[in-house]
Structure formats: structure tokens, C-alpha cells
Specification:
- The protein is an all-alpha fold and 184 residues long.
- Helices cover 77% and strands 0% of the residues.
- The chain contains eight helices and no strands.
- Helix 4 runs antiparallel to helix 5.
- The protein starts with a helix and ends in an 11-residue tail after the last helix.
């Protein structure tokens, strides 16, 4: 939503951003005395948000080139960034089974989805891509329910619905960009 607000000055975009912020705040612990909020965790979440915004902006541009090459470069950079933290754990538990499981996780959770997202970004209008991305909070909640047995209360479900509605509404109300005809 920040990317949408930074790229527009329409009051409706600020309204959608406000709805998304309300959804996020509804999921956040409001009373710090009741729940300990880890400052490092909040900081890392903010950094992740900045990186997500950069991913959307830069991914739209990079998706137009060789998607396989872009995905390979991005995965290599991500591996190099994560290696200092993950390598000691991997080396401590190194076995063929762990390597096979790690390869499977890498392909199914990063390489394949990232490649498909780059393909989608280059083929779909930004508004359509944004609407599809707005389904991610619901999919995460569904995965938490199926895999972890987590149950969300109505307040939490409403907060997720607000974030999804804000994203979908923002994408749906963004004026279409009309491409200029190519010169003959």
C-alpha cells in the first residue's frame, strides 16, 4: 500500500492505505503492557516491508527481461545474504536427507514461486497482480490453520479481510494506463 500511496496523490488511495493500516493495527498488540513487543522483531518487520516494496517496484521492471536469469541472480543474492546465518546450522546437521529436504524447500518455497511471480508481473496488469497478491494474507491464515492448527478469532479474520479489501480496492480503483501507439 505504501508503494501505491507514494505513486499517487488521490484521496481514495489514502483511504485504501488507511483501511490497510487499520487492519494491520487490529492484528497488532495495542497494549504493550499486556503483550511484550520485541523491538528487534518490529524493526526487522519494517525492513521486510521496505524490501517488499522494493521487490514490487523493481520486480515490475526486471520481469520484462530474461525471467530465468533475473530469478537466478535474485536467488543467488538471497542465498549469499542468508548464508552467514544458515550455514553453521546446515553444517552441524549435514546429511544426504537434510540436503535433499533443503533442496526441495528451496525449489518449492523460493525458486519456483519467485520465477512464477516474475512471469506474472511481466504478463499481468499491475492492478490484476496486486489483487492476486492481496490473497496472500488469507492463504497464510489458511496455511496456519491447516498446518499449525491455528484458529483466528473474528477480530483477526476481519483485520485480514480489511487488508485484502484495501489491496484489492486500491488495484480496482487505480486508473488504467493507456499505452501510446507504437510509431510506424
Amino acid at each position: 500500500m505504501t508503494v501505491a500511496v507514494l505513486e499517487s496523490r488521490r484521496p481514495l488511495d489514502f483511504a485504501w492505505a488507511g483501511l490497510a493500516a487499520a487492519g494491520v493495527l487490529a492484528l497488532s498488540p495495542i497494549n504493550p503492557a499486556a503483550v511484550h513487543v520485541d523491538a528487534l522483531g518490529v524493526g526487522l518487520a519494517l525492513i521486510a516491508g521496505v524490501c517488499w516494496g522494493l521487490y514490487i517496484v523493481l520486480g515490475q521492471r526486471a520481469g520484462g527481461g530474461d525471467r530465468g536469469q533475473v530469478a537466478s541472480i535474485a536467488m543467488t543474492i538471497a542465498a549469499l545474504v542468508a548464508a552467514p546465518w544458515g550455514l553453521p546450522t546446515v553444517l552441524a546437521h549435514l546429511s544426504p536427507a537434510v540436503l535433499a529436504a533443503g533442496l526441495g524447500v528451496a525449489i518449492l518455497s523460493s525458486a519456483l514461486p519467485y520465477s512464477l511471480e516474475l512471469f506474472a508481473m511481466s504478463r499481468l496488469p499491475a492492478r490484476t497482480f496486486s489483487i492476486l497478491m492481496s490473497l496472500e494474507p488469507a492463504m497464510a491464515a489458511l496455511a496456519g490453520f491447516v498446518v499449525l492448527g491455528e484458529r483466528l478469532n473474528p477480530w483477526q479474520l476481519g483485520a485480514i479481510a480489511a487488508v485484502m479489501a484495501a489491496s484489492a480496492g486500491s488495484a480496482a480503483t487505480t486508473p488504467a494506463v493507456i499505452a501510446e501507439p507504437a510509431p510506424n
